[in-house]
DNA sequence: ATACTATGTCGTATATTTGCGTCATACTTC
DNA sequence: GAAGTATGACGCAAATATACGACATAGTAT
């Protein structure tokens, strides 16, 4: 991903791609849904709910944390993870803008040859 | 990605992850934006507009086509790619549902210990 | 202090992605 | 038909991602 050419894209495009990548694995989607459904911050229970080893889940958590999509607070022996709802809302807007832009009109101009 | 365990997730989660993965590279985001801005279907011009080789762009196009996000129609010597706006709208809804679900309420219950 | 528990980090094997050169295909034009 | 052009398919090297066991760390509890 971090090939040289990657730098030649818009910061906006890279940002969207970065977040999309974070959601590009079912486990991470599941983690976010889990954190949303349980209204309370859970910790290693997440691993128990997923069909993956604790280690692997921890890695996925770190990835989400690296993008600040989730936050972890140490509470004694356990760590409480919460969604960063503010960021998520912002990301949602970014995605919406992208999709709206892409679906604004049917792409092909009325008289275009193809399609 | 196609590890054994991957099957253990919801079809919904896998679907979202699949699409997210398609958007997980700036080149593919750029391609979609390009197709949206040029109101007419373009073909190999896409490669010319991107800082990547024709071959690489072709691969990204195939990836988007595999998910049916874009469609290509052969028009003589060239191929016209168009956005599948209908699918994109549907995907937009899926993402929106996911984000709304995730940001519906602040995750932590009022009296929870952490956060 | 000692034993126990919850997490993160590291190392590593395997799988997948990415980028691109080269070749094959197919249509156009002369 | 021969030459030229636009694309996709194939193959390969380098980069990443994925999964997980083993170890390190840090707080709890007795």
TrEMBL record, chains A, B:
SUPFAM superfamilies, alphabetized: Winged helix' DNA-binding domain
CDD domains: HTH_ARSR (cd00090)
Pfam families reported for this sequence: HTH_20
Keywords: DNA-binding, Transcription, Transcription regulation
Domain HTH arsR-type residue range list: 8-106
A molecular function (GO) term: DNA-binding transcription factor activity
InterPro entries in alphabetical order: ArsR-like_HTH, HTH_ArsR_DNA-bd_dom, HTH_MetalResp_TranReg, WH-like_DNA-bd_sf, WH_DNA-bd_sf
Protein's name according to its UniProt entry: Transcriptional regulator, ArsR family
Organism: Hymenobacter roseosalivarius DSM 11622
């Amino acid at each position: 991903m971090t090939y040289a050419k990657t730098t030649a894209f818009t910061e906006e495009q890279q940002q969207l791609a970065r977040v999309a990548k974070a959601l590009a694995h079912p486990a991470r989607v599941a983690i976010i849904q889990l954190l949303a459904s349980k209204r309370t911050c859970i910790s290693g229970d997440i691993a128990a709910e997923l069909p993956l080893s604790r280690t692997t889940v921890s890695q996925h958590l770190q990835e989400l944390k690296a993008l600040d999509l989730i936050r972890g607070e140490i509470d004694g022996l356990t760590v409480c993870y919460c969604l960063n709802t503010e960021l998520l809302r912002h990301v949602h807007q970014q995605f919406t803008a992208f999709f709206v832009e892409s679906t604004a009109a049917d792409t092909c101009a009325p008289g275009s040859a193809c399609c």
